[in-house]
Design goal:
This protein has 252 residues and is an all-alpha fold. It contains nine helices and no strands. The chain is 71% helix and 0% strand. 41% of the residues are buried.
């Protein structure tokens, strides 16, 4: 109920305002899913094409260079955003402002986003430790690649790919489009869980639980602040902490 909901930080409810103007009817569910699937498919096709073109499919994750990873991330996420924005405009009659990119971060929202980054990073590490204890280690290929990179230049390129480009594209898709659209029809917990599950599945079963928890937390940050810039900052912070720590680990 409104009386028991946490006070928002200088923002409106993304279930109404951030997913579209308050007087906009709910987005059509089938069209919403069609836009999401087409956007994800565009990224997957471009990524696969680049992997084949660059020959990285035949390389071990440790042999993939920061330049190759950055190129794949920029072009695949760029394709995702182009398709999402084009189909979103055509099929759903929505634009960037309707996806939550209509308001700059205020000081309180920025502080909340940064604080949430630290908390969600700790939570994801804790949940990942539980998953490893239950099912054994199964790290993402990207994490293995970053762990093999050394030097400041490599770290900066990895941060550009993982803590700048990827958070923007993923938050627009999973929080701006999916969570925002689902929350027009469903309670917060259900919308956050469904969008979080799709977000986690896209990262692989090996990190399903920690990425799911991260996705739910990012949805809360979006709901609490009313602007998509907040979960983008939070997501970027979580990834940046992980990338810096992984790059600092011994090669063994």
């Amino acid at each position: 109920s409104a009386a028991s909901a946490p006070e928002r930080v200088d923002g409106a409810d993304p279930g109404r305002g951030a997913a579209g103007p308050e007087d906009r009817p709910p987005l059509g569910l089938l069209r919403l899913l069609a836009v999401a699937v087409a956007s994800f498919a565009a990224a997957a096709i471009v990524s696969l094409g680049l992997v084949l073109l660059l020959g990285t499919a035949h390389k071990a994750p440790q042999a993939r260079t920061p330049e190759e990873i950055l190129l794949i991330v920029v072009l695949s996420d760029g394709a995702l955003l182009l398709v999402l924005l084009a189909l979103g405009r055509r099929l759903l009659r929505i634009g960037p402002r309707d996806l939550g990119l209509r308001a700059a971060l205020g000081p309180r929202q920025l502080a909340f986003a940064v604080f949430a980054a630290g908390g969600l990073w700790v939570l994801s590490i804790f949940v990942n430790a539980i998953q490893i204890a239950l099912f054994g280690p199964n790290p993402q290929a990207l994490v293995v690649s970053v762990g093999a990179h050394r030097g400041l230049q490599a770290l900066l390129l990895d941060l550009l790919a993982g803590a700048v480009v990827a958070p923007v594209a993923e938050e627009i898709l999973y929080r701006g489009l999916l969570f925002g659209g689902l929350h027009q029809r469903l309670p917060f917990a259900v919308a956050a869980s469904l969008s979080g599950l799709l977000f986690a599945a896209s990262h692989g079963l090996g990190v399903l639980l920690p990425i799911f928890m991260l996705g739910v937390g990012l949805a809360f940050v979006y709901w609490r602040t009313g602007t998509l810039w907040a979960p983008i900052i939070t997501h970027a912070g979580v990834n940046a902490i992980s990338l810096v720590l992984v790059s600092a680990l011994p090669r063994s």
